[in-house]
Fold this sequence. Notes:
The protein is an alpha+beta fold. It has helices at residues 29-40, 47-58, 118-132, 190-201, 212-220, 272-293, 311-314, 335-341, 343-351, 401-405, 411-417, 426-434; strands at residues 13-16, 19-23, 70-75, 80-94, 97-109, 137-140, 153-157, 160-165, 180-184, 206-208, 231-237, 242-248, 258-266, 300-305, 320-323, 327-331, 360-365, 370-376, 379-385, 394-395, 422-423. The longest helix is centred in the middle third of the chain and has 22 residues, at 272-293. The protein is globular, with a radius of gyration of 24 Å.
Amino acid sequence: MARKTYLPQLTPRELGDGLVLRQATRRDRKAIADFNVAMHSGEHDLPVELRNWTRDLLSDMHPTCGPGWFTLVEDTGAGEIVSTLCLIPSVLSYGGVTVPLGIPELVGTKKEFRRRGLIRAQFEVAHEWSRAAGHQVQMIGGIPYFYRRLGYEMGLDMITGHRLHTSAVPKLKKGEKEPFRVRRATRDDLAFIARTYEHGMGRYLVSGARDLEMWRYELDGRRRGGSSHRELRVIETAGGRRVGFLVHERGGARRQETICAGPYELASGVSWLAVTPSVLRYLANYGQRQAVRAKKKLSWIAFFASEAHPIFRAAPGSLQSTWGPYAYYVRVADLPGFLRHIAPVLESRLAESIAVGHTSELKLSFYRDGLRLSFARGKLKKVDAWEPAEGASASFPFLTFLQLLFGYRSLQELRDAYADCEAYGEAVTLLDILFPKLPSEVWPAA
């Protein structure tokens, strides 16, 4: 996990009309929380939850963030914040290779101050901080289209929500005892949880990397009642042997009729078919207790996960889609550097393919610019800029190559969607080998 080793700095900037772009300080904590409640509260984020989440990110307790990672635009005449965002340092895993990541969050501008470039100005700062901190990728889950204007492409799987009606939860037979129980996690469980999580993330191309400090923060660092606060549970046999972990929302005022869960992972060698019925019964009982307090009735259990997750085969019957599919926006400012960084993944794919030990060049045209990947005996020897010209191995319009790079779309899907996305000869085979379509699941460290 990225640590607070880099401390961002920003000299205040005059933006005209009395507006000043500056870095937040501890003194701004309440004003930033108030601003974000006003900007982002809606049917899915109650004010208390949103306020507590913002305060978490502004606190010194957060493993990677804090006040210094927030920018704001202040109307000096009125003495109020009119726009703000934050950047959360984090880490991804790409095929087992760790990738430093920056996550922009809590992006907002007061309606009367929009269309003045305030968000763009703050993103320029955030991108510079991200570069200085060594982040190779930026990722944000945002509104449709908007972040394309800032150099982002929708190119990474986002978890989707599926729900199961409580009537479908398997019941224990008469006289049968619960084979697995779910209990509150403690600090002594965190090493087990970290190992189990890492094992589960092996099924994905891209996942969020989490160390013990981040798990400690999930356990007892967040404010209870914040929109990012979740309950961390351990699943164990009746004899007390740990077999997995579960994360779920606390329940209560926000979604009294539905309890939402995820991540949910089991240790290697443990049957999902055996454990999942106990987990469903636990969630139904827990959720119902919360619903009763709110004078509601629990009707649904929802899981938020990649569609490659075992829950979608282990749950009885079929889970109904409730939200998604959608995608994270991603930005890679130094594409040659990123490809060099993930070279072990690309070389491994070649070694396990019909192109083992292959020597060739891939010339990728992005129409305005391009890249040349040089392979020698199965090793990526060089990635350098290439001026698009005749002889391109493949062509990708806009930022569509990022969809291929992050396993979001296959080469054929891109070619079907974009008439000016093309590939020729053996490049078709090589691109399919190097950049296959694969599932991802990122639980942001926000």
